[in-house]
Structures are given as structure tokens and as C-alpha cells.
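Per your request, structure below.
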């Protein structure tokens, strides 16, 4: 039989596809992972680790908590199927509820997730799920399939050098923060249950945490509206399905009885005093005010604006389309604000004029132009305030063209509200923290909620963070989380 050149290419490509598939020891499935070899996973994870730390504001710096999380993780991985992975575990200093893993065994949980979990078994379930993504090689599988789809099978007929493979595998952190498929999520849940059982943990903990997670996500959506950006929320990387909890409960029935360790009291004691919400190094949102003690400044936003404190900026937005972005910029040279705006910030852009102003004793400059925000015609005003020789604080104000005179005045007040903190503010503005209390006879959800420092939604937040259903009450003698200052 004689093969044509094109047919020979297809045959060779097909053979390479077959050779590129391997049997995963955790799942027993054949996987196509050609473009992310197991030997390179550690290198890929290490290259993205710094980006993750920067995106999420670094680690919490609490060695006791970090060692506790690492201890659980290392115990879990000792009974997994892959011995070619060296795992490392990190607690990110972010109040966002999230957990994820990078290839090569980099596993992350956030401080916000620790606040939501209610037992060691629940935390172990989350870690087990993330380990499941690593042992199942979901990132390698997803990336390789994506490359194949975008490049076509023709590239498989060529001889790929190691450097070319490295270039193909040089993916960014967004790959690992994007959603897994429904089947991959269920597979990671199933592997997480296996690892829970192998280590004697209560298998019901996974469903318990998923239930709390669902309540938390629904509450956040209702409070902020569906339009709010939840890119870093847990469900952005772990899409919820209607039957996920019931599937986990059903799968748990197939395991033999183990010690069913919960570790609730141990876990709650470990997170007692843990920062809740924003940490001091990130600054605090209190109502319409933002305070940053290490950098010694505060400012306020207009009524009706919702603030988000992100690692590198503060964003405030309103339902009417107004937006405020506040950040900082460091410069090497000592220059005046007007020069900074025209020659550094807006270098290369034609500005009609740059006006010099004074904001609470600080030299500043401003300019404006017409633009579009979320499809709405707006006036974009830029304000740069020289805070010291090498640092500028900056506002980007998006003002709808149909804004009322009162709203325009509110934007101006925001601009001129930037100032150093008073001594009283330095002494009184503190981060929120988790306080573990024991319910006494006569205590209720309502009475314990009243002990919290939260101005609104106190009872709803108490229920969510303590894993209580809408009709469930506290039990005398049990430990619960309350939010204090």
C-alpha cells in the first residue's frame, strides 16, 4: 500500500496523538498532555508563583496558621497517587474566598476562605479538591487541548524542540484562574473525598463547605448585584453546579466507615484572632471612607458608591454609571504635578489643558477629556496629587455626561477629601478580626450577632460564616465565630 504525503502526515500526527496520551494514576483515564509535560510542571508553577503573590497581596505572615495549613496539606498528599510532585502550600492575605492550585504542586487558600470554613475537615476537603486538580493533571490536559485546538494537528507532525515546548507551556496565571470543566470539577471533588477518607476525615465536610460557599456567594450577589466584578471569587475558578452537593453526598456513601474526624474546635481555636476582611497593610473600607494607616491617608466617596479594595487600587462605582479609581505611582525624578500628568501619566497624549490645584496643602494637577465607560459617554477627569518627592496619588473619575450638579459636586468633594490621618484615626481605626466565643444558655443567633461590629447584614453574615441554615439556631456550649475589632 502506498501512502501519499498528506496521508502520511495525518498518520504520523495520529500516532503522535496516541503516544502523547498517558494513563493518569489517580483517575485511570488516558490524557492528552503533550504540551505541558509532567517534568515541566514545577517550572511552570514556579514561574507563576510570584504573579499569584502579587495579585493576591502576598501571604498573611502568620507562621502558626501557615504551618497549620501546610501540615494538613502535607498529610493529605502523602496518600495520593503521584510521587513526582513536591507540594507547597500558601495562605494568601486576601479576604476573597478562594482556593486554587498551579501545576507542580503550588496550592493556595486565602484568608477569606479560612474565615468561611468551620472545621479542619472542611479545610482538608478544600485542599484535597485542589490536590485532586494537580494529581488529575487538569491544567496540563486543558492547556494541551487548547493548544491543539488553536494550532491544529499539523504541528504534531513536526519535530518539536524542548525550547519550543517551553514556549508553548509558558502560560500566565489567568489559565489557572479560569474555570475548570464540569467533569473536571466533579473529578476533583471525587479525588478530594478519596483523600479525606484516606486521612480519616469526616466525608460530610466537603458538602458542608460547599453549602456554606453557596450561601456566601448568593449573599454576595444579592448585596452587590450581579454586575459586580467577582473575578477573584471562588466560584469564578470553581463553577457551582446544581447537583454538586448531592453528588458529593452520594459519592461519600460508597466509602467504608473511617474515623470521621471533624477537628472543629481545633480549627476554630487556630483561626481565633485571624484578621477578617481587609488587613492593615491593605487599608480599610469603613462605610464611604477608605483608611490606609501604613501610608497615612484617607479619602471618601460619594453616597451610593460601592468601594472595592484591590491589591493595587481602590475602585468605587455607582449604579448610575459613575466610577472612581484611586491608585499610586512612584517616579524616579522630583517633578511637579503638571509635568507628571502631561509628560509621565499621559505621555504622548494631546491634552487641551492641565490645571494646577492644591488639595489640603498638597500640590496637584488635573485635566479632563471625553470618553466612554461601560458604553456610556462620560467625562474622564484625571487628578494627580504629589504626596512626597517620589510618590503621586491619582484619581481617575468617570463622570456620566448626564450627571446632576449635585453628583458633580460629590465628585469634587471626593477629590478634595484626600488627607493624612488624624492621631485619633490612627489610634481607633483597626482591622476586624474573628473572635471565637462559646454560646451560653439563652444565647441565639440574634444575640450573638449583636455582639459584632458590623453595621449591616450582621445576622446574615453570622449565619453564613458559622454554617447555619436560615432556620437553625445556636447551641449552648458550641463555639461560634463573631466579627469584632
Amino acid at each position: 500500500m502506498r501512502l501519499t504525503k498528506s496521508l502520511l502526515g495525518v498518520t504520523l500526527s495520529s500516532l503522535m496523538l496516541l503516544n502523547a496520551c498517558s494513563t493518569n494514576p489517580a483517575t485511570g483515564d488516558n490524557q492528552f498532555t503533550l504540551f505541558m509535560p509532567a517534568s515541566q510542571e514545577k517550572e511552570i508553577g514556579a514561574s507563576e508563583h510570584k504573579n499569584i503573590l502579587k495579585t493576591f497581596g502576598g501571604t498573611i505572615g502568620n507562621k502558626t496558621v501557615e504551618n497549620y495549613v501546610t501540615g494538613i496539606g502535607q498529610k493529605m498528599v502523602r496518600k495520593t497517587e503521584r510521587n513526582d510532585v513536591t507540594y507547597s502550600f500558601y495562605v494568601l492575605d486576601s479576604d476573597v474566598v478562594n482556593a486554587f492550585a498551579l501545576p507542580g504542586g503550588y496550592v493556595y487558600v486565602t484568608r477569606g476562605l479560612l474565615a468561611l470554613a468551620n472545621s479542619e475537615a472542611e479545610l482538608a476537603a478544600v485542599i484535597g479538591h485542589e490536590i485532586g486538580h494537580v494529581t488529575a493533571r487538569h491544567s496540563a490536559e486543558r492547556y494541551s487541548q487548547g493548544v491543539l485546538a488553536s494550532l491544529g494537528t499539523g504541528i504534531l507532525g513536526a519535530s518539536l524542540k524542548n525550547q519550543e515546548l517551553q514556549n508553548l507551556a509558558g502560560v500566565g496565571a489567568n489559565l489557572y484562574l479560569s474555570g475548570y470543566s464540569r467533569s473536571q470539577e466533579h473529578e476533583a471533588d471525587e479525588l478530594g473525598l478519596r483523600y479525606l477518607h484516606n486521612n480519616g476525615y469526616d466525608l460530610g465536610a466537603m458538602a458542608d463547605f460547599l453549602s456554606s460557599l453557596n450561601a456566601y456567594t448568593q449573599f454576595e450577589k444579592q448585596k452587590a448585584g450581579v454586575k459586580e466584578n467577582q473575578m477573584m471569587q471562588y466560584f469564578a475558578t470553581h463553577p457551582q453546579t446544581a447537583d454538586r452537593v448531592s453528588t458529593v453526598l452520594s459519592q461519600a456513601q460508597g466509602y467504608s466507615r473511617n474515623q470521621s474526624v471533624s477537628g472543629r474546635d481545633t480549627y476554630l481555636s487556630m483561626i481565633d484572632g485571624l484578621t477578617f476582611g481587609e488587613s492593615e497593610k491593605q487599608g480599610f473600607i469603613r462605610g464611604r471612607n477608605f483608611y490606609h494607616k501604613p501610608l497615612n491617608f484617607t479619602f471618601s466617596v460619594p453616597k451610593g458608591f460601592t468601594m472595592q479594595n484591590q491589591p493595587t487600587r481602590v475602585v468605587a462605582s455607582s449604579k448610575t454609571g459613575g466610577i472612581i479609581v484611586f491608585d499610586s505611582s512612584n517616579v524616579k525624578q522630583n517633578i511637579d504635578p503638571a509635568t507628571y500628568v502631561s509628560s509621565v501619566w499621559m505621555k504622548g497624549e494631546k491634552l487641551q489643558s492641565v490645571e494646577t490645584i492644591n488639595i489640603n496643602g498638597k500640590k496637584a494637577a488635573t485635566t479632563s477629556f471625553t470618553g466612554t465607560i461601560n458604553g456610556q459617554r462620560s467625562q474622564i477627569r484625571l487628578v494627580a496629587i504629589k504626596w512626597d518627592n517620589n510618590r503621586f496619588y491619582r484619581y481617575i473619575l468617570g463622570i456620566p455626561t448626564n450627571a446632576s450638579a449635585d453628583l458633580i459636586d460629590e465628585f469634587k468633594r471626593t477629590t478634595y477629601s484626600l488627607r493624612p490621618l488624624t492621631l485619633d484615626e490612627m489610634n481607633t481605626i483597626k482591622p476586624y478580626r474573628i473572635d471565637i466565643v462559646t454560646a451560653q444558655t439563652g444565647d441565639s443567633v440574634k444575640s450573638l450577632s449583636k455582639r459584632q461590629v458590623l453595621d449591616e447584614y450582621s445576622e446574615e453574615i453570622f449565619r453564613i460564616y458559622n454554617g447555619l441554615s436560615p432556620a437553625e439556631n445556636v447551641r449552648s456550649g458550641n463555639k461560634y465565630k463573631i466579627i469584632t475589632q
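The two ends are 81 Å apart (CA to CA).

Regards,
D.
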